[in-house]
Amino acid sequence: MTYTFEHIRRGAMPPRIPRIALVALSAALVGCVGVLQAQEPLIQAQEAVTGGKVPQDVTEASDRTRLAFFEKLYKTRIEGVKPLETYPDPDQFYSAIASKVGIPKLAFKAVEKEFGWSQDGEFLFQAMVKGGAVGDYWGVMVVKVPKAIATTKNLEERKRLLKQMEMKFVSIQYDGTITFPREKKKKATQEKAKTS
After folding, report:
1. What is the pLDDT of residues 17-34, one digit of tens each?
2. Whole-prediction pTM value?
3. Which of 62, 78, 164, 177 is the most exposed place for a label (fewest CB within 10 A)?
């Protein structure tokens, strides 16, 4: 059986697999290996994604393993994405779709607005996108990376630059709603600590 991010999230995996998967995810983010760079989106704004709601005729979970589901959802032809069965990992299929319809770009705009981040001469954004056949959302880990890290050869300088790296998790629902689940949890914990 192939395990996806959704299996990890729901806890429907053998006990050793989540640890391995999370170690691999952490290594990919920290090393900036295997992250997606956003491509030019086929959609221009959040409202263009679905017009504010998921069409009723595309909500069957079984269709989410087919490219046609996402073409119907986003009302566009998605070129350059192969069928799910041809990918060694289902996450590659969903990441390719997300990249083609502009999900990383929406996440970048969201962190710019919410946290004041910007892609200027000093920093660039990278995204790791998770989707699946179960949930009605895209999970996007946005990483703010110093540009100088790519050219620095000095180990001490790299360590200093890695300390400037920041990450935020963005959840983008199929209906276009954007949330920051970890930030909400952080605020709730801080409020609870203040009242104690």
Report:
1. 334 333 343 334 333 333
2. 0.64
3. 62
